[in-house]
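Here is a tokenized protein:
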Amino acid sequence: MSTIALPKTDCPTHPETTSFSILQGDLMMMHSGEKGRMLVAGRQYAANGVVASIIAYPIPETDLKYIKTTDAYKYVFYDPSFYTDVSTKPVGFLAFGAMAFCNHSSNPNAFIRWGRFKDETTMTLLAHRDISQGEEITMRYANIDEYLNSNQWKS
């Protein structure tokens, strides 16, 4: 999968977007004045189709309290099976790549399937429904209540 820097341009499907940031495979990471960074489909994805897949790195609970005070917390994901039982370790997973650019939606078009590959935890972003080329890819954040001003992001 190659990464290409794109020239600043207007996006016809997202007129509020100021520029394309990068194109990575079939995904576009874009910047919008209203939302900040966002992930946009560079092609159509069928329902249940794989959008992206990565290795997630476990964060021990003792380290998570420090990460919450940094910008790195934007890249912490919670597997709901861990999140509902606070006695289970690890509590969070650090994940980078395309899915880190997904914005929250209460009506998302994608979701994360957690899995295991050898000794690693994997996160696979799947289309919840058909996603059109040029459409923003969104997901529901499991830990949305922990964000400052979380009520504004619950729509």
In short: DSSP finds two helices and eleven strands in the chain. Residues 61-67 form the longest helix (7 residues).
